[in-house]
Design a protein that fits this description.
alpha+beta, globular, 8 helices, Arc Repressor Mutant, subunit A, disordered N terminus, about 250 residues, about 35% helix, Jelly Rolls
Length: about 250
């Protein structure tokens, strides 16, 4: 799979400065919050939300900012992080299309407890507190789901991605397995992860150091479990990776 070293990950945001109406409808229909609405209702929700885009490395919001907007990622990838007591970055989650994040006063949130940064060109739909409150009043079905579905997804724990038990190799392998389930692109030579993560991102995701992650991934590559390049990873032997994750 060495030829993939020169093949970039495919672009996930075809319109870097806009989220077209068909994209909005498709993304909203796929969410648990809005999925039960009819086509006209989903179109109405989409019209109430504004679309914004961010380049790789730009923050959608920062920990401590007022929590006055709810977001639905429409295209691209973003990482949700928090700073620990020592100033280190912890990666709580990696977000993809259809993921809900952010927070509004309607859900009892005053300030953001995390930061979200675009990993590549990213487009998100956004609605403010007043707009979300009006939406809940107009769509009782959404109101019934809001606190269960949204509050659950906005939970600051994001424990699945912040697991810090086991050896470094186990934690890195486990993170790669979870990323493959969400962002994997299966092919004849393996599963390419369609998310541009660095070693530092994986370190933040697994409670490890960049050096420890690099050593673990080098060993996996040497054993034929994965292949890697600049900001991309391909899983060659998923069974072996799962076995490593389980210890």
């Amino acid at each position: 799979m060495s030829e993939r070293r020169y093949v970039p990950l495919r672009a996930t945001c075809g319109e870097p400065h806009a989220c077209p109406a068909p994209v909005r409808r498709r993304v909203l229909a796929a969410t648990a919050l809005f999925g039960d609405l009819g086509e006209r209702e989903i179109a109405d929700v989409g019209e109430r939300m504004t679309a914004r885009s961010w380049a790789a490395g730009e923050y959608l919001y920062v920990e401590g900012d007022p929590a006055d907007d709810l977001y639905v990622l429409a295209s691209g990838r973003a990482k949700m992080t928090r700073t620990d007591a020592d100033g280190a970055e912890i990666v709580l989650d990696v977000l993809g299309p259809g993921d809900l994040f952010g927070g509004v006063a309607t859900l009892g949130m005053g300030v953001h407890g995390d930061s979200v940064m675009a990993l590549n060109t990213t487009c998100a739909l956004r609605i403010d507190s007043d707009g979300f409150r009006a939406l809940l009043g107009d769509y009782p079905a959404v109101a019934m789901r809001a606190f269960d579905e949204v509050a659950g997804q906005l939970s600051s724990t994001r424990a699945a991605f912040a697991a810090v038990t086991g050896t470094v190799a186990q934690r890195v392998a486990g993170a790669l397995v979870r990323l493959a389930a969400k962002f994997g692109d299966p092919g004849p030579d393996g599963v390419l992860l369609q998310v541009p993560l660095t070693r530092a991102d994986l370190a933040g995701m697994t409670g490890s150091t960049t050096e420890s992650v690099s050593r673990a991934m080098s060993a996996m590559r040497r054993d034929g479990v994965i292949d890697t390049g600049r900001k991309w990873t391909a899983i060659i032997d998923m069974a072996a990776l799962r076995e490593l994750a389980e210890g």
